[in-house]
Specification:
mainly alpha; 2 helices; about 80% helix; about 0% strand; flat
Length: about 60
């Protein structure tokens, strides 16, 4: 079985993708609403990821 070796960034993106899909499926009723909400959640996760990354980068100096 091949070993999967993900960087922290890749793991964060994978987490954001999977979580967004699950949130879209669980919270909305129609397929269109599910798709749009999953995309919205994914973009929010990425915004938080990059925002917090820059905040930590600037905080460390």
């Amino acid at each position: 079985m091949p070993k999967v070796n993900l960087s922290h960034f890749e793991a964060s993106i994978l987490f954001a993708l999977v979580t967004s899909v699950v949130l879209g499926i669980v919270t909305k009723r129609t397929d269109r609403e599910r798709f749009r909400y999953a995309i919205y959640c994914f973009v929010c996760f990425l915004g938080a990821l990059f925002g917090l990354s820059w905040l930590m980068y600037l905080g460390h100096g």
